[in-house]
Design goal:
- The chain is an all-alpha fold.
- It has one domain.
- Helices cover 87% and strands 0% of the residues.
- It contains two helices and no strands.
- Helix 1 packs antiparallel against helix 2.
- The chain is rod-shaped and about 125 Å long.
């Protein structure tokens, strides 16, 4: 009788240990899946923020490019309108235009 009792107790112990292991494993897998989902969503938000920033900077770069081109055209028009532009060399007005276009050295 003691043998059967010991075998029954051992079976109950094995079943309890097995079910605790499986419950812990299931809970751990669920928690890990939730952590991975949160991490993925955080990375996706950061990627979207980066994409938005890149788009804003591209728009600003295009605006600055257009402004630079417009200023260059204005300076060229001033140079062509200057009666001294036909002479060889650069006069004071020409130096000022060059400095406005390229900055002073």
């Amino acid at each position: 009788m003691r043998g059967w009792l010991a075998a029954g107790a051992l079976a109950v112990l094995i079943a309890a240990t097995g079910s605790a292991y499986l419950a812990g494993r299931s809970h751990g897998a669920t928690a890990e899946a939730a952590r991975q989902l949160a991490d993925r969503q955080r990375v996706e938000r950061r990627l979207q923020d980066s994409a938005d920033e890149i788009a804003r900077r591209a728009v600003e770069a295009e605006r600055l490019r257009r402004e630079r081109d417009q200023l260059a055209r204005e300076i060229e028009n001033e140079a062509f309108a200057d009666p001294a532009s036909a002479r060889a060399g650069v006069d004071a007005a020409g130096v000022q235009r060059l400095e406005r276009r390229w900055g002073s050295p």
